[in-house]
Write a structure and sequence with these properties.
The protein has about 280 residues and is mainly β. It folds into two domains: about 120 residues, Immunoglobulins (Immunoglobulin-like, Sandwich); about 120 residues, Sandwich (Immunoglobulin-like). It contains three helices and 19 strands. The strands form five sheets. Strands 2, 4, 5, 7, 9 and 10 form a six-stranded mixed sheet that branches. A four-stranded antiparallel sheet has the order 1-3-8-6, with no helix packed on it.
Length: about 280
């Protein structure tokens, strides 16, 4: 008998053990990559002439202590609506923010408060001044990247007379990507964004355009969603002063449709309000 012969059953057992080890390693890696940090609130808008301080709560949702570093940047959105870091200038809010503390040690299942104060170094121009405050969860193992997650909280500080003026140059519903598309020109000194409500229903159940629009209450920002495919508040990025952008807001229809449907919207942009109904014909 050849002494180098290994029984197939042993090879199979070794293979199974190796698969189990790899699976456990992948599971551990996935768990290590799960975010354990939560931030509240997710955005701050303040009027420092009335109240110059705010606070942010950082929560450690994990079972191990957490180290968090805090830093700030001047920023805007580029032409594709992606975050872009900008150099500081004398009117940018990042130069006026005092943050305490900037390094946090948070025990497991605990939280800590970070306080923000605005102290302008020069006379602020009227309108909006912004900064992005980042919370960086540090990698305690000291291997590879020196941080695990980076969460940004936009801070908007308004001084003097704030003018949110906008022109809506176009609005449509994209039935392929299931989203509204807005072409917005921001003409004031503070950001504008489409704020409103929408609903989607099967055409056979939607009734008239008037029936559908009655389900939308722009003042209360509420929707009568009974029998709807989707409905709720718009979720679009802001358009900063002096910029023209095409921005989108999703319509999360989860059902695969093989029949016609209707989408209605009521929206306010700046001081203007609009309503529209889109009828999407399928199978005709």
């Amino acid at each position: 008998m050849n002494s180098s012969y290994v029984q197939p059953s042993i090879i199979k057992m070794v293979f199974i053990i190796m698969l189990g080890v790899l699976f456990c390693a992948e599971m551990n890696a996935a768990q290590n990559l799960e975010p354990k940090m939560a931030i509240s609130p997710s955005r701050i808008e303040m009027s420092p002439e009335k109240k110059a301080t705010e606070s942010i709560t950082v929560l450690n949702l994990g079972s191990e202590p957490m180290q968090v570093e805090v830093y700030v940047q001047n920023w805007d959105f580029d032409a594709n609506n992606n975050y872009r870091a900008l150099p500081p200038n004398e009117q940018s809010l990042d130069q006026w923010l005092i943050i305490n503390p900037v390094r946090l040690s948070i025990p497991a299942k605990s939280q800590q408060t970070v306080r923000l104060a605005v102290r302008p170094r020069v006379k602020p121009e009227d309108g909006e001044h912004r900064a992005m405050v980042f919370f960086r969860q540090l990698n305690q193992q000291g291997k590879g990247f020196n941080f695990k997650f980076n969460v940004g909280v936009p801070i908007y500080a308004n001084f003097g007379e704030v003018n949110r003026e906008a022109e809506l140059l176009g609005m449509e519903f994209d039935p392929i990507k299931l989203r509204f598309v807005f072409d917005v020109l921001s003409k004031g000194n503070a950001y504008v964004r489409p704020e409103g409500v929408f609903i989607a229903m099967k055409a056979a159940q939607a009734g008239t355009d008037e029936d559908l629009l009655e389900r939308l209450d722009l003042n209360k920002m509420s929707v009568n969603n009974l029998g709807s495919l989707a409905g709720g508040k718009l979720a679009a990025k802001p358009v900063f002063a002096g910029n023209r952008r095409q921005i989108t807001s999703p319509v999360p229809i989860k059902e695969i449709l093989n029949e016609s449907y209707v989408v209605a919207i009521k929206v306010k942009i700046g001081s203007q309000t609009f309503s529209e109904v889109y009828r999407i014909n399928i199978g005709e």
